[in-house]
Amino acid sequence: MTDTAAVPRQAPAPSGVPVLELRDVDVSYGRVQALRGVSLTVGEGEIVALIGSNGAGKTTTLRTISGLVRPSKGEVLLRGQPIQGMGAEAIARLGVGHAPEGRRLFSRMTVRENLDMGAYSRKDRAGIRDDFERVFALFPRVKERSSQLAGSLSGGEQQMVAIGRALMARPTLLLLDEPSLGLAPIVVDSVFEVIREINQGGTTVLLIEQNALLALNTARRGYVLETGEVATQGPSQELLHSPDVQRAYLGM
Predict the structure, then answer these.
(1) Whole-model pTM above 0.90?
(2) What is the mean pLDDT of the chain?
(3) How large is the average pLDDT for residues 140-168?
(4) Does 10 map to a domain?
(5) Cα–Cα distance for residue pair 27/73, rounded to 1 Å
(6) How far apart are CA 79 and CA 34, in angstroms?
(7) Buried (b) or exposed (e) across 112-134, using 16+ Cβ within 10 A?
(8) pLDDT at residue 13 is higher than 60
(9) Worst-scoring range by mean pLDDT, 100-104, 138-142, 191-195, 230-234?
(10) Which residue segment(s) compose the domain that 59 sits in?
(11) 62: exposed, middle or buried (C-beta count within 10 Å: 0-12, 13-18, 19+)?
(12) φ/ψ (deg, to 5) at 109
């Protein structure tokens, strides 16, 4: 595994209106409240990590941002504009890409067809061709497998395709849900190296990751969710040295 002790190089987050802001967001599934008053911000050029145990509300948070779930209370702001009442397609058109937990590829379609689905709302064919080449440059294995059915790929290859599909929408904000789930350590290193490269290319990232140590060493800042609420937040290096975070999420 690569050296996770180094602080990642990211573009500085300028002051002003954040790329993303959640203000006191509540989400319920029937009688079960999944999020309670969740507030967070993601600045331009940042990688921000969202960590917590299973069932803490991390995936629900990303689904709420991307319009797959609507909050019962609170606001979701994209560059200062409320988007919580908009549908997923409209939010994607505004520059929000989402690589969901479990990859959710079209298994009976080819890799190239899956990538093309990420650009379904775009009409700029020249730009789409350029973005195919960008994805293939980031993930050479995806280029090698472009004519294969997505369902025939390994878990790591499928994760690469899922991230590539999200990038085909040319997002300015990329939501990543458990990109290391089920992957071998050497593949995890490769995927996270690409995530850093994507960020350094100008894409802001909100990251959910089961490996809290890896997540906090990749991100500038982090939020800890517990039972649907933000329990603590701060610079990643501060969270890494927090006794509560170490005990609960880092196995120390």
Answers:
(1) no
(2) 89
(3) 90
(4) no
(5) 7
(6) 25
(7) bebbbebbeeeeeeeebeebbeb
(8) no
(9) 100-104
(10) 16-90+171-179+189-252
(11) buried
(12) -105, 155
